[in-house]
Amino acid sequence: MAVIDVASVDFAYGKNRVLEDLSLEIGSGELVAMLGPNGVGKTTLVENLLGTLAPARGTVRVLGENPRRVGPSFWSRLGFMSQHWNDHGKWRVKDQLAWIGACYESEGVKVRDAGELLDALGMIDQASAPLGKLSGGQRRRIDFAAALLSRPSLLILDEPTTGLDPVAKAQIHDLICECQDEGTTVLLTTHDLAEAEKIASRIVILGSGSVLADGTAHELRRRLLGSSEITWREGDDLFVHSTTEVEQFVAQLDLESISELTITRPSLEDAYLELVGKIKTERAEQRTAVDARGRIVETGAPADAREGTPE
């Protein structure tokens, strides 16, 4: 059974269609990074997965259940990290985590040691600090620790490393990978291509309201950009060859008779930027049309027209 199963989902804010016939399935133990430019529906999809929004059409199943019709036991199996927070700024860090842990324990859940999590995230010295005195990056790490407390079966992380320095980012990456090694399914949204390529077993790119690309970083490079370029010299002659089968082609070369062998592979960033360029072109075309007199008229509001831009 899929841990996340989204089938033919439509969602709109008024006349602004954000998700359109979107389908996505994530299996147990996968670590999936979801990318896409602002406004394509990443956060809107996350909110549908959490049940805070309901699709106009289609079905959403998370951990085998409809997230809009679940009880406390469901939330103890799901860890969530949002981009925003609204809680008691005067509470100390350790009090916040103790309160969240107590809520889980009331459902019979054995929670992780909060002190160990804070230590792993470089935050043990801030255990007694008021939440309202933390920097944005420090607060992100506390939210991440809270998401891990119940040892969830599913982690949904909405841009978990935004605003973090490289050391803090690496600490979060290590804990995410540790969770996956223990069998946790992870879905994270990010704008960081290097992050996605480093830790994700699978990358999903959203655009135009649906899934535009889905696969490993290697698969996406090949699918979206195609060939790698191989150059080499034989004597005074320079040769250039394009292929999608780099290893097989190089194996056929007489490496003792050639020099200056160079392999240039398309990057995930190249693939992503090409795809994003197409999305922006489509958006511009969708927002305008020409009337009978040849005048350009608006046909729809841009994706960020509402307060609280859908991502």
Notes on the protein architecture:
- α8 packs across α10.
- The protein has helices spanning about 40-50, 70-75, 95-105, 115-120, 135-150, 165-180, 195-200, 215-225, 245-250, 270-285, and strands spanning about 5-15, 15-25, 30-35, 55-60, 80, 155-160, 185-190, 200-205, 210-215, 230-235, 235-245, 260-265, 290, 295-300.
- With about 300 residues, the chain is an alpha/beta fold.
- A hairpin with a 2-residue loop joins β1 and β2 (about 15-25).
- The protein starts with a strand and ends in a 13-residue tail after the last strand.
- The radius of gyration is 23 Å and the shape is globular.
List keywords for this structure.
311 residues; alpha/beta; 6-stranded mixed sheet; 3-stranded antiparallel sheet; 27% strand; globular
Which helices and strands occur, and which strands form pairs?
Blueprint: E1 4-13, E2 16-26, E3 31-35, H1 42-50, E4 57-62, H2 72-76, E5 78-81, H3 93-105, H4 114-120, H5 136-148, E6 154-158, H6 166-181, E7 185-189, H7 193-199, E8 202-207, E9 210-215, H8 217-225, E10 228-234, E11 237-243, H9 246-252, E12 259-264, H10 268-287, E13 288-290, E14 296-298
Parallel strand pairs: 3-7, 3-8, 5-6, 6-7
Antiparallel strand pairs: 1-2, 1-4, 8-9, 10-11, 10-12, 13-14
Mean pLDDT: 86
What overall form do the CA principal axes indicate? globular
Low-confidence stretches are 298-310
- The main sheet orders its strands as 5-6-7-3-8-9
Number of strands: 14
Order of helices and strands: EEEHEHEHHHEHEHEEHEEHEHEE
Range of helix content: 25-40%
* SS content category: alpha/beta
Distance between the termini: 28 Å
Rg of Cα set: 23 Å
What percentage of amino acids are in beta strands? 25-35%
Describe the sheet with the most strands: 6 strands, mixed
